Amino acid sequence: MAFPPKDIMVPLDGSKNAERALTTAIALAKENKARLHLVRVIDPNIYAAYGGGANATVFNEDVRLATENYLEDVAKRVKESGFTNFSTKLLQGNIKSTLARSYPEEHKIDLIMIGATGMNAISQAVMGSVTAYVVRHATVNVFVVKDDA
Asked: Model pTM?
């Protein structure tokens, strides 16, 4: 990792821990004049259980629109904090591999700041934690932000 980091990726899922990671990343980025990459990944395959055909298309579109609104809200809050050197990105694909490898490699990320746990405890139990996967498979350093508990 380049130190101080110049490109910091923050995966966002709306969870309290992701918000803590964002707050921590903003402070670090301000201190080191780094750029933040605020990333949300949607895996359309996760929503296949909601039915195929038109139902899945409408549901995926609803998820995309809700996520775009969420990222717009995050961008507004980041700007209100006085930080402007950031970008937001909504991606589709495998969440784990996108966060651990694809996006960091494509954008020369040198630090990933991620919440210890995310929104979906059931998914973690079945598929394993996204954070644990990113820690094990990322090719750059990962800073895990834990909750207050």
From this structure: 0.86
